[in-house]
Amino acid sequence: LPFVIDMILTGYVTIAAIFAVISVSNCANILMVTMGGTKSHKIPFWELARGLIPRGHNITFVSAFPQDFIMDGLEEITPTGLVFYVKNFTNWDLLGARMRGEEPVHPLDMLRYPYEACDILFSDGEMKEFLQSGHAFDLAILDGAFPECALGLIYHFKIPFMYINTVGFYTGSLSTAGNPAPYSVTPFLARPFTDNMNLIERVMNSVWHVSANLMHIVMVRVFLHGVLKKHFGNDIPHPYELSKNVSFILQNAHATITYARPYLPNVAEVACIHCKAPKPLPPV
Ligand SMILES: *[C@@H]1O[C@H](CO)[C@@H](O)[C@H](O)[C@H]1NC(C)=O
Ligand SMILES: *[C@@H]1O[C@H](CO)[C@@H](O)[C@H](O)[C@H]1NC(C)=O
Ligand SMILES: *[C@@H]1O[C@H](CO)[C@@H](O)[C@H](O)[C@H]1NC(C)=O
User: Fold this and answer.
1) Within-domain flag for 89
2) Number of domain units in the chain
3) Residue to probe by mutation, ligand 3, list 153, 241, 245, most atoms within 8 Å of CB
4) pLDDT value of residue 65
5) Which residue has its alpha carbon closest to ligand 3 atom 8?
6) CATH number, residue 194
7) Which atom of ligand 3 is nearest to the CA of 154?
8) What does the pLDDT average to over 225-237?
9) Residue 131 CA to its chain's centroid (Å)
10) Atom of ligand 3 lying closest to residue 238 CA
């Protein structure tokens, strides 16, 4: 009998060892990048990291906002040049502008932020060192709100990538990836329209969408692609071409807080992944 028990135990140990080896070899090195100009962009990334690290994955996270806490398995890279650029650029009062009924960010500033921030990121010594360090990654998770600059890293590391679209109302990268965003029912993110618009509102909404798209195209085609060519060589494809290859999109939205939208099967809505279980109110 002891012999039989021994056999069974050895079997279990072998199976457990095989599973352990499989789970270790399933662990990945993941690169996360947000070029967002406000710290709120980091929050959904942290939540993803909190879920991925206990499963054995290592995360390297590039952003413009220095680390707030130490988490085992999470390495944050915050190139100084970018940190100072964003700090100076965002010396603004978003809420005050809203309350005065003004546009919070001047359109010309919106046009210059992406390519200036991108040039500063890839000119930074720490970033150059990182690119030359021989790091290897299995997957990149980029901020879908402004992925075009970080796509340079995809070209450099030659890795599959996905987005977490931190700005739920932004449909630009969803639409580049093939998801329909008809102007007739997709309210422009900076206007108070809903998906139920009359004819005049639909015309206004289309004008906003078309103007924003034109601005984006000029910014990416004329300026940003040039910045990427300067740092990664003339062969780097156009960011829109790179962007079309996105494997999966986590969309920080939900039909109950944005609008019901048609998505391709590689989009998952994850609104509230950062939400914590509510605590009871303190007794009075
Ligand atoms: C994650 O990092 C730890 C510590 O640096 C290392 O021992 C481990 O091999 C890494 N895991 C992967 C999947 O590379
Ligand atoms: C800070 O921002 C202001 C206004 O945008 C700009 O004129 C100035 O050159 C910036 N300073 C630095 C050090 O980047
Ligand atoms: C997109 O992915 C396909 C298939 O892997 C590849 O052949 C193509 O070169 C990629 N396009 C770009 C612009 O990287």
Assistant:
1) yes
2) 1
3) 245
4) 94
5) 245
6) 3.40.50
7) 14
8) 96
9) 19
10) 13
